[in-house]
Amino acid sequence: MLTHAILIVAVLFVQMAAGQCPPGTFIDTGVCRLCPAGYISEAEDSASCSICPPGTFSKGGTECPTCPIGTYSPQAGAEICLPCGQGSVAAVEGSTQCTLCPANHRAVSSALCLPCPSGHYANVTSGVCYPCPAGTHFDASVEGGCTPCEKGTYAPYSGFERCAVCPAGQFASTTGSVECRDCPVGQTTDGIHTEICKVCDVGLSTRWPGSPLCEYIATDQELRPDTRTIIVILGTVSALAILLTVTIVCLTRVSNAAAASLSH
């Protein structure tokens, strides 16, 4: 760099000695002077230097290069191009400004925006993706990118793309739920995705909280036999025992008689 500058100055002095001001300089009261940063001259013996337009830069010389992708220069006469800030990009050369990434997109570089991952959002000023909080899910149609779960659904942790539905026997009565609650004993739901429980029909109940099914459940009183039933059962057992005893006695006598007959 230093050698190049020395060479330019040497050429300048040679040309000045020959009565010429080279490109990249201008004549100032008979003296050749270098164009300042942000300005150029393209012809010999220029009376003045031309300012570089927006979207370009120059440290002086004969040309105004365009700003590279990912940088910009908003005003004429720029010495350098500026990098884009967080969440904004300059996707083409020669940009005069950076543009913000669209909603729910992130800037992966100063030149490229990409959509946020599933279940994440980004506002137009940050360019950074964040997961939708628990109790919400991603919705590109709303400002902010996240919307509360509707009744009968839930999102137990952050980053949900879609809220899960409550299973049968459980409900979510408010929006933005992070869990479903069990229906109490004696109540259940009409299928899945419900916000309220219903009381079981007369004569029916559920076996435990959160049960998906109403069914007939016998009471303790119904399961306990009454006195009359007990007497009948005991009488039947006693009669069977007597009958069995008589049968055994008869068979024993017959067997003994048969044995005695054979012995004679």
Task: Write a short abstract of this structure.
This protein has 2 domains: 120 residues, no CATH class; 86 residues. The protein has 3 helices and 20 strands. The strands form 10 sheets. The protein has a two-stranded antiparallel sheet. Strands 3-4 form a two-stranded antiparallel ribbon.
Tell me the span between the first and last alpha carbons. 145 Å
Average of pLDDT: 85
Q: What is the share of helical residues? A: 10-25%
Largest sheet: 2 strands, antiparallel
Q: Which residues sit in consecutive blocks of at least 5 with pLDDT less than 50?
A: 1-18
Strand order of the largest sheet: 1-2
How would you classify the helix and strand content by structural class?
alpha+beta
How many alpha or pi helices?
3
Residues in β-strands, percent: 15-25%
The overall strand count is 20
- SSE series: HEEEEEEEEEEEEEEEEEEEEHH
Please tell me the total number of domains.
2
- Overall morphology: rod-shaped
Radius of gyration: 48 Å
